[in-house]
Automatic annotation (TrEMBL):
Composition bias type Basic residues, residue spans: 1-12
Protein name: Alpha-ketoglutarate-dependent sulfonate dioxygenase
InterPro entries, alphabetized: GRDP-like
Organism per entry: Clonostachys solani
Signal peptide location: none
Location of the region described as Disordered in the Swiss-Prot/TrEMBL record: 1-77, 446-468
Domain of life: Eukaryota
Pfam annotation, one family: GRDP-like
Length: 819
């Protein structure tokens, strides 16, 4: 076992407390659960296996184009299900898998297998009726759905409630998984990164960290449980956040090796179930002190009061009701438990109401105290905000500025900061005000640039007449602050929300059914080629957001799961461009809907013009409208003669007539976006309407042109099925409505600002950002990249957080548009 696994825990008390905590009221019978799940057939209650994905026709096994959809279908029909599965299982066993390498066919296939395992886990948990006393019967007479006695409105109401109940089970499971992942991370952690090492330009644990170290050969008994692997998977899909966290916690071996595909592939059975050895379970429980099965763990958690440090036993959820409950009171699905959307717990000792907001303040106070007393550097003070890499010697002072700001603003108050005697405990707005006070004067800014400086009491305020901070300094402070807004975990981002967003990509990748295609290797080879083209566009046009289709996103994600290889590849290629600096390309999974829509259209047009091939190889109504817009950007002209290269590429693609996706599958351009913050919602609504009008116009023209050729286009409307409930979406900019409800233990996965939040909740410190909402990308939060061009300063002196977007979602994979 590697050094970070053999290390013994110094403090296992909390794990022991959880181990001895209250057990669930009803234990899970695994065999019963599987039996119940098996009853769901290809109905609206469970997603059926879709046909093979779209493909161009007539190309066979060519490396220059995806295989034919017709060939894929006929090949599948020529094999019996048993023979086909046997063949697939044999091919899975022969995958050549390594770590520290760029993505290839075998690694992408292994990644797909893992994605299927996560989706199977999600369905097992979400459809497990009664898990944590969340019963389907709360949705109404579920048994009457098929008897014809209910009208359409009643059926829709029950299915909507069922959808939310199932989503709640999964959201609660993910919250517990993140907590377990944190235990695992701390158990394997090395020495914390010290500020003196950050000040050293030759530090191997800082400057040289991304270059990695020797690889480690994993064995199956060292793998954590599937839920923890799932959180680790999402963590790595936020590359800059993951690099920072790995550096802060001394996990260079973990960073270097990445996902151990060879070992993980062996632990997956033919049905994509995760079945590690008994030694694996024993090692996990010894290392963390908690049970292997997430759902069998205690229903309560120990939380220390931020004010008096008294341990409190709090419920994971307060949304439970017994199955036989006959009363009228319903606790709803928001809840006040630790895994709920509105956590509140009164301390049994001092009476303080513990909330996630208070825990976030406590995290910042703890990190500041660790810096002052133990010289442990603070989150957000490790990587340069422009490059995402350890800084050059002349950039060090900009990067470490948050350490000095926190010390200057908080050191004199740390002893009494969380004192409840006044009855008014601080929140993150209190922190913002303290930081603003320091940043509002010339003396204050000079003081944080010089750690030995002194802030004069008589310093005159700046009153916002001109910026006091340099651009990198301002962004770095915002990076640090984003580590605490609605995030009290030890990580750089809210992993619960990130996993929920990533789940939308996983579900779509499973529905596209790439894994069980008889021509999977040819398809993966084509996807890898398309990904390289995507990277080329992204590096050449770094001032604009690039949005991948789902096939590109799969390979992009696979690349990120080899962190050292991904770092080396992106920094090398970005640095080779003329007059460009090397950058560690981030993966941003929160982009506002209007930005995502425009960026996807631009990426499609750029790809089409550059390579002479259709980017979104899908015949759904939305994609056909985009094809028409790219073919005739200014409308068809009566003087047009013949076809240009772009029009010919679209014409050839359309003549292949790939079948449109059904509502049970996903189309290749389907992504979710983040909703507009409340302060800009009216602008978002105007932009959305304008986009829909333009798309309608393009679609109507595309229908007429197709009709002249004897073709019939599918409906422009698409339905996205979630837990048996259909949701209407229109283009890539729509965030699924089910993600808008406050079901989750943290920030809302789909929104830049949580529903019902005060618009001022995430205002940055004056001088660093001005009065504006913090967004995951916009204020340099999880995954956020920063645009460093002539127009980098936006309204209110805000540096626009612009990075690369991923197609699947509001996290679809966790910064700007990730999947």
């Amino acid at each position: 076992m590697p050094s970070f696994f053999t290390k013994k825990k110094n403090k296992a008390s909390r794990g022991e407390e959880e181990e001895n905590g209250t057990q669930p009221e009803q234990s899970l019978d695994k065999s019963k659960s599987k039996e119940q799940n098996a009853n769901f057939g290809p109905s609206d209650e469970r997603a059926s296996t879709p046909p093979p994905t779209y493909d161009k026709s007539g190309q066979g096994t060519s490396h220059d184009a995806p295989p034919s959809f017709d060939v894929a279908t006929s090949s599948a029909q020529g094999l019996s299900p048993t023979n086909h599965l046997t063949s697939l299982v044999a091919s899975f066993a022969n995958l050549k898998l390594e770590t520290q390498k760029d993505p290839d066919v075998d690694t992408c296939i292994a990644h797909l297998r893992f994605i299927h395992a996560i989706q199977n886990l999600k369905e097992e948990i979400g459809y497990h009726d009664g898990l944590w006393n969340l019963w389907d019967s709360r949705a109404g007479p579920v048994s009457a759905l098929e008897d014809g006695e209910l009208n359409e409105a009643q059926i829709a109401d029950i299915k909507t409630k069922l959808s939310h109940l199932r989503e709640k089970r999964w959201a609660l499971y993910v919250a517990r998984a993140v907590d377990r992942y944190q235990l695992w991370w701390q158990a394997i952690a090395g020495d914390r990164l010290m500020a003196k090492e950050v000040h050293n330009k030759n530090s191997p644990r800082w400057v040289e960290f991304p270059n990695g170290t020797t690889d480690f050969s994993w064995t199956e008994d060292q793998l954590p449980s599937l839920d923890v692997l799932m959180i680790w998977h999402t963590h790595m899909l936020n590359p800059r956040c993951y690099l920072e966290d790995a550096m802060l916690w001394g996990l260079r071996e973990l960073w270097t090796t990445g996902m151990p595909w060879a070992v993980l592939n062996k632990a997956l059975d033919p049905k994509m179930a995760y079945s590690p050895s008994s030694e694996c379970r024993m090692n996990w429980e010894t290392l963390t002190g908690v049970k292997w099965e997430n759902e069998l763990g205690p229903t309560t958690k120990i939380v220390d009061c931020p004010a008096c440090k008294q341990p409190n036993d709090v419920a994971w959820t307060t949304c439970s009701l017994p199955e036989t409950y006959k009363g009228v009171a319903d606790p709803g699905l928001t809840g006040n438990g630790y895994g709920d959307g509105d956590f509140k717990q009164t301390c049994t000792d001092c009476g303080v109401v513990i909330t996630k907001s208070l825990l976030s303040v406590a995290k910042l106070v703890r990190d500041t105290n660790n810096y002052i007393e133990n010289d442990i550097t603070m989150p957000g003070s490790v990587l340069h905000p422009e490059s995402g890499m350890p800084p050059n010697p002349d950039q060090i002072s900009d990067v470490i500025l948050p350490n000095h700001l926190a010390k200057q603003a908080l050191e004199s108050q740390l002893d009494n900061f969380m004192n409840n005697s006044s009855g008014n405990l601080p929140n993150m707005l209190t922190i913002k005000d303290l930081f603003s006070k320091v940043l509002s004067t010339e003396q204050g800014v000079s003081g944080i640039r010089d750690p030995n400086g002194h802030v004069a009491e008589s310093a005159s305020p700046n009153n916002g007449t001109r910026p006091l901070l340099k651009r990198p300094e301002a962004v770095q402070i915002r990076k640090m602050m984003s580590r605490y807004w609605e995030n009290h975990s030890i990580f750089a981002l809210d992993l619960v929300a990130a996993v929920m967003r990533q789940g939308t990509f996983i579900e779509k990748a499973v529905r596209l059914n790439w894994l069980f295609s008889p021509v999977i290797r040819q398809s993966m080879d084509r996807f890898c080629q398309k990904y390289q083209r995507f990277l080329l566009i992204m590096h050449e046009d770094s001032m604009h957001l690039c949005v991948p289709t789902l096939d590109v996103d799969l390979v992009w994600h696979t690349h990120q799961l080899a962190p050292r290889a991904y770092y080396k590849s992106t920094t090398t290629h970005s640095g080779k461009l003329a007059l460009r600096k090397a950058k560690f390309v981030d993966h941003n999974d929160k982009v506002e809907e209007s930005t995502l829509s425009r960026s996807f259209e631009r990426t499609s047009a750029t790809y089409l013009a550059k390579f002479g091939e259709v980017y979104s190889e899908c015949a759904c109504g939305f994609c056909e409208a985009i094809h028409h817009k790219n073919s005739f950007p200014n409308g068809p002209s009566m003087f047009s003669v013949g076809k240009n290269k772009v029009q010919k590429a679209i014409y050839d693609f359309q003549n292949a007539q790939p079948p449109p996706p059904s509502e049970r599958t996903a189309h290749i351009s389907a992504h979710n976006a983040s909703e507009q913050p409340p302060t800009r919602a009216y602008i978002g609504e105007y932009i959305r309407k304008a986009w829909e009008l333009k798309l309608d116009e393009s679609y109507d023209r595309a229908v007429k042109r197709a009709g002249k050729k004897g073709r019939k286009l599918p409906s422009k409307g698409e339905y996205y099925s979630h837990w048996g409930r259909k949701y209407f979406i229109y283009g890539p900019q729509s965030a699924p409505t089910f993600l808008s409800d406050k079901l989750y233990s943290g920030s809302s996965p789909a929104s830049m600002v949580s529903p019902g939040a005060d618009p001022a909740w995430a205002t940055c410190a004056m001088g660093a950002c001005g009065q504006n909402d913090i967004a995951a990308g916009g204020c340099g939060g999880p995954g956020g990249c920063v645009q460093w061009g002539n127009h980098a300063l936006g309204n209110h002196g805000i540096l626009t957080g612009l990075g690369v977007a991923s197609a699947a979602g509001a996290g679809g994979c966790g910064g700007g548009g990730g999947g």
